[in-house]
Specification:
Layout (H helix, E strand, L loop, with lengths): L1 E7 L6 E8 L6 E10 L2 H7 L9 E2 L4 E8 L11 E4 L8 H4 L9 H6 L14 E2 L19 E5 L3 E4 L5 H4 L5 H13 L6 E5 L3 H11 L5 E5 L3 H10 L3 E3 L6 H9 L3 E6 L4 H9 L1 E9 L13 H5 L3 E4 L7 H13 L9 E5 L3 H10 L4 E5 L4
Parallel strand pairs: 10-11, 10-13, 11-12, 13-14, 14-15, 16-17
Antiparallel strand pairs: 1-2, 1-4, 2-7, 3-5, 3-8, 3-17, 5-6, 6-9
Helix pairs in contact: 5-6, 6-7
């Protein structure tokens, strides 16, 4: 079938709307008509060449839509179902069998290989130009910067039809990453402190999640006062603007010493190294923000040796099928108002959405592509 998609031709090339051919769903696959998709810094990083997706390719990885058709062997979904497109996983490796799909041993090829990574058509892309030239697709298992997408049935999360589909796409990655880092990686105990560096979509989702834990001190750090104001509304007990305050001194003053948990959501190596100083013995630094490829950071060996923990987290850990429905339930209860982060754009406004996200004027851009 013919689809409309945004194609990036080469590193740092613009998004160009193009008509492509998309294959019918094969075994275990589902054809999804995209209603909306979030725009994430990972898309910008991939466009810039910091993730190794072969180009030309179709990006987009926070899609939501309606099932149009299912391939052989798909029994848990049917045409007309509303779905959020989660991360793909093999389901067979040690980590998948432990219920940690985000750490699938084949994650790299599943997310940025540019082709199917499982099944009889593994190694081939379902996306091509009119002359038959293949185009990389299957980005994060979906390539949702298009009006139709092929996805693995196992990666899709069915949602109730009264939930606005145009809203929930960001639960596929960014929003879930921040919330899951709190719920699944930090897991603060009663009375503990948690600091979030970077109050963008991921960081503010972490603040919302922290409000639903026993943590009694929740500190947001950001350069934008408008975002710090939102953080206070979402549950931050304290906020810090590094342009006017000594951040480390203020964290220690508020916490009465080092923080228990620090979430680094900016991807800035300078900020990361500062964040490592905000925790002490038995404190945990959680790396979330995506730094450029091959980036390195340094920490003081002796102070780290004394019980500091530095851990990375991907996509909020756990599984899409477990975490996404939980966040939707919290949203319904008014305890996770992530809808306040969203600003909508049309597909043709992708460049504006990217620019607004980079400047900080928009927290979570979402491209409206179709109708439910």
């Amino acid at each position: 079938m013919k689809i409309n998609a945004l194609v990036v031709e080469e590193k740092n090339a613009p998004f160009v709307r193009e008509e492509l051919e998309l294959e019918a769903p094969g075994p275990g696959e589902v054809l999804v008509r995209i209603v909306a998709t979030g725009v994430c810094h990972t898309d910008a990083n991939t466009q810039a060449g910091d993730l190794p997706l072969p180009l030309p390719g179709v990006l987009g990885h926070e899609g939501s839509g309606v099932v149009e058709a299912v391939g052989p062997g798909v029994e848990n979904l049917a045409p007309g179902d509303h779905v959020i497109m989660g991360w793909p996983f093999c389901g067979e490796c040690r980590n998948c069998l432990r219920g940690e799909h985000r750490y699938c041993a084949r994650l790299g090829e599943a997310l940025v290989g540019g082709s199917r990574f499982m099944g009889p058509d593994a190694g081939t892309s379902g996306y091509s130009r009119a002359d038959g030239t293949p185009v990389s697709g299957h980005f994060f298992g979906q390539s949702s910067f298009a009006d139709y997408s092929l996805a693995m049935a196992s990666a899709l999360v069915k949602v109730d039809q009264d939930i606005p589909l145009e809203l929930v796409g960001p639960l596929a990655c960014g929003i879930t990453t921040g919330a899951g880092a709190v719920f699944n990686t930090a897991r603060p105990e009663p009375g503990e402190s948690l600091v979030v560096y970077g109050a963008g979509a991921v960081g503010l989702a972490a603040v919302m999640a922290a409000r639903n834990t026993p943590a009694t001190t929740i500190i947001a750090v950001d350069l934008h006062d408008s975002r710090l104001e939102l953080a206070r509304e979402f549950g931050a007990t304290h906020t810090i603007n590094p342009t006017t305050t000594d951040t480390l001194a203020e964290i220690r003053r508020i916490c009465g010493g080092p923080a228990d948990y620090v979430l680094e959501c900016t991807g800035s190596i300078r900020v990361l190294e500062e964040a490592a100083e905000a925790i002490g013995m038995l404190g945990t630094l959680i790396l979330i923000g995506g730094a450029p490829a091959e980036a390195r950071f340094s920490v003081d060996h002796l102070r780290t040796l004394w019980g500091k923990r530095i851990v990375g987290t991907l996509g909020g850990s756990s599984t899409s099928a477990r975490l996404i429905p939980a966040l939707i339930s919290l949203y319904r209860q008014g305890r996770f108002p992530f809808d306040r982060l969203v600003t909508y754009y049309s597909l043709d406004q992708i460049d504006q959405a990217m620019a607004d996200s980079k400047s900080g004027s928009t927290i979570k851009p979402v491209l409206r592509i179709g109708t439910p």
